[in-house]
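Quick one: sequence plus 2-acetamido-2-deoxy-beta-D-glucopyranose SMILES, need structure tokens.
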Amino acid sequence: MSKSDIESSSDSDANAVVTPVKPTVWQRFKAHMKKWWWCYLIGLCIVVLVVILPLFYVGIPHFANSYINKYKYDYEGLSITNPRPTSFHVRQSQKISMGGGFSGSGHLSAFNASCKILSTGEQFAIFPVPTIDFSNGATLDIDHDLEVTCVDCMAQLAVEAATNQSFGVLVTGTPDLKFGSLPTAHLDIHKMMNMNGYNVTDFVNENGAFNVTSVDLLDTPVDGFNVNATISIRNPTPFIVEMGHVTFNLSMGGSDLGYVDLPNLMLQQDISSTIVLGKINTSMLVNEAILGSGELGEVTLDIKGHSCDYNGHDIPYFAAAIKAIQASATLDLLQYVSSLKSL
Ligand SMILES: *[C@@H]1O[C@H](CO)[C@@H](O)[C@H](O)[C@H]1NC(C)=O
Ligand SMILES: *[C@@H]1O[C@H](CO)[C@@H](O)[C@H](O)[C@H]1NC(C)=O
Ligand SMILES: *[C@@H]1O[C@H](CO)[C@@H](O)[C@H](O)[C@H]1NC(C)=O
Ligand SMILES: *[C@@H]1O[C@H](CO)[C@@H](O)[C@H](O)[C@H]1NC(C)=O
Ligand SMILES: *[C@@H]1O[C@H](CO)[C@@H](O)[C@H](O)[C@H]1NC(C)=O
Ligand SMILES: *[C@@H]1O[C@H](CO)[C@@H](O)[C@H](O)[C@H]1NC(C)=O
Ligand SMILES: *[C@@H]1O[C@H](CO)[C@@H](O)[C@H](O)[C@H]1NC(C)=O
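Reply:
Sure thing.
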């Protein structure tokens, strides 16, 4: 597995640019900054994470874990739903408790965070960060659409992230910060995140990434599908992700075997179960199981991601990640012999 690095271009205190105030107040302010700098940093991290989310199967597990460890932010219950070609919905409600020594209250004003590709400076997404109030703790209520402003950029990021290359994201925004009786500070956030991608192939091929739980051959094909199976999939991210209709092409020893259709893929936390419909050359499959090079009943399928759509609309940023999936799976058909009795 590749290691995921998060680097900040500048230290957090240096991110704040404050309108001129009397030095004494400024010093007081700075002292407080030291205590809660992570508060707006978390706001930022959420933005960045959320932007990176479509890079499903990607650096996220490492990236997120690293944040959880560093900032004790809990991503449980964060969900990505209703994907559309240029936006998706993000929801989470989260309470953050403050570390020791913190007292006082304030808020970080709502702002639009702009996310750019580091190498080209091109903006690819805007996320409306809500007001974050804090008073011995903070509550984040996120229930917003994230707008993708450059789908190609996002798709390119997805591919880079899925092929073990390193890539960078720059987040900018200008929220106001009000803390206690101190004057409002106008922040100018300019944060670079460098990440290493994640080898998707390695993840998908890991033992236990997915299991076939049942296989039914349909004597009379339904909508052209002759196989109805159920699989369980491990979610590589800590988030709930609604992906929609996903398809994969199958082959065996270089020959086309057909394709499978996951009509409604919703990745729940940890493990989810989903129906898989297949249009598969079953005589080829059975032939291989009986006469093939492996053990009796065993077949090795090559799986290649093909597409992802939702409500009939192609979801390009998910599709890019799906297309990067290439894996092989060995199935023991004898395990499913009771459901294959029609053969
Ligand atoms: C964010 O951008 C939208 C659309 O341009 C605008 O309506 C909204 O007021 C902006 N929000 C903030 C906090 O600036
Ligand atoms: C991912 O890992 C597989 C097997 O470990 C390797 O063959 C492949 O080249 C790797 N892909 C990238 C882009 O590094
Ligand atoms: C993935 O990238 C890391 C760091 O760049 C490198 O050490 C590792 O060998 C790469 N893995 C593959 C399979 O290319
Ligand atoms: C697949 O089965 C193995 C062995 O029973 C289990 O350890 C693993 O968690 C399962 N994975 C999924 C995604 O169900
Ligand atoms: C596939 O099987 C599931 C339950 O096993 C059933 O609900 C669904 O209607 C079946 N689909 C087709 C196309 O046969
Ligand atoms: C790949 O799958 C798609 C649908 O999922 C299908 O239309 C296409 O013909 C398949 N390609 C091959 C080479 O089987
Ligand atoms: C299934 O595969 C066999 C080769 O194993 C081929 O002869 C046959 O034409 C294929 N059937 C279909 C419907 O593609």
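The chain has two domains: 12-198, 201-336. The first helix runs from residue 23 to 52.
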